[in-house]
Amino acid sequence: TDYSGGDTYTLPNSGTDTLYAQWQVNTVTLTYDAQGGSGAPGDQTGNAASDVTVSNTVPTRDGYTFTGWDTAANGLGTDYAGGATYTLPNSGTDTLYAQWQINTVTLTYDPQGGSGAPGNQTGNAASNVTVSSSAPTRDGYTFTGWDTAADGSGTDYSGGDTYTLPNSGTD
Prior knowledge:
By secondary structure, the protein is an all-beta fold. It has strands at about 25-35, 45, 50-55, 65-70, 80, 85, 95-100, 105, 120-125, 130, 145, 155, 160-165.
């Protein structure tokens, strides 16, 4: 027979009776916070203090590379990779936070048959750089500026203009 606190219990006529504690294991949750990214894995639930496998789902974020999960938003906790074992808490919810490294990207200059092109410029994804004022030379031609398309049908840039780097790769 089940009894709760405050219930009436009739003692036996003699001897001793014993009531035994009954337990139900807590169901707890592991959540994933993409921290500005998208595509975080769904929550995982399980029994308190049981082990779960960290999701292999990789979130995405423009201009950044996902480096793994951490128990602290600032990355100063314990790191976990997809497929690692994570021990759930005894109660409540734990959260793993996506860790991101900003992409370093490059702007290159193609002199298209000329010589003396400026050196590559690198910076953080989506950051601004100043277009080089160095002009290449080509016998029989006058340099008129830079363009985002080889055939000149893209966006024109001159030395000193601001150029926004891409989220990844090389422009």
